[in-house]
Amino acid sequence: MAGAIFKSLVLDDQVSTAGVYTDDAGKLLSAVSAEPIAAMKDIGLDITTNVITQLTPEMVEGADTVILTGPLPRGPIPGYLKNSPKLVTWDVPDPGYGQISVVGARDMIVEKVKGLIL
After folding, report:
1. Do strands 27-28 and 23-24 pair parallel, antiparallel, or not at all (unpaired)?
2. How far apart are CA 52 and CA 24, in angstroms?
3. Were both Cys, which of 26, 28, 42, 99 would link to 93 (CB 3.0–4.6 Å)?
4. At what angle do helices 2-9 and 102-117 cross, to 10 degrees?
5. What is the reported pTM?
6. Is residue 9 one of the residues assigned to a domain?
7. What separation in angstroms does the CA of 77 have from each of 47, 81, 103, 113?
8. What is the CB neighbour count within 10 angstroms for residue 39?
9. Has residue 118 been placed in a domain?
10. Mind listing the pLDDT tens digit for each residue in 20-46?
11. To which H or E segment does residue 68 belong?
12. Domain containing 19: what range?
């Protein structure tokens, strides 16, 4: 969601998105689920063709900033990211744990992204 929101507000910047851990019980996640798609459509953004990819050390190396949204992932943050001075974390609860709705998380991310560009 953050990448799509950023791209919609800053049309000339290059943005890449990836997950720290992209598999669920050994099954690679590649498509965005329906609830985030609907939440983004509500604000005029279409993420139906977005694909979840795995963050790599090369992606971190080539980035200016790496933003981790949500709580720490299901395991330890990989060393290539944890020790990177490029890492910025945003405390956005994960809707998957029932602490917040997808719309609530989306709205928090919108505010964080706006804070980056102002």
Report:
1. antiparallel
2. 12
3. 99
4. 40
5. 0.82
6. yes
7. 26, 7, 26, 22
8. 20
9. no
10. 766 655 555 667 889 999 999 999 999
11. strand 66-69
12. 2-106
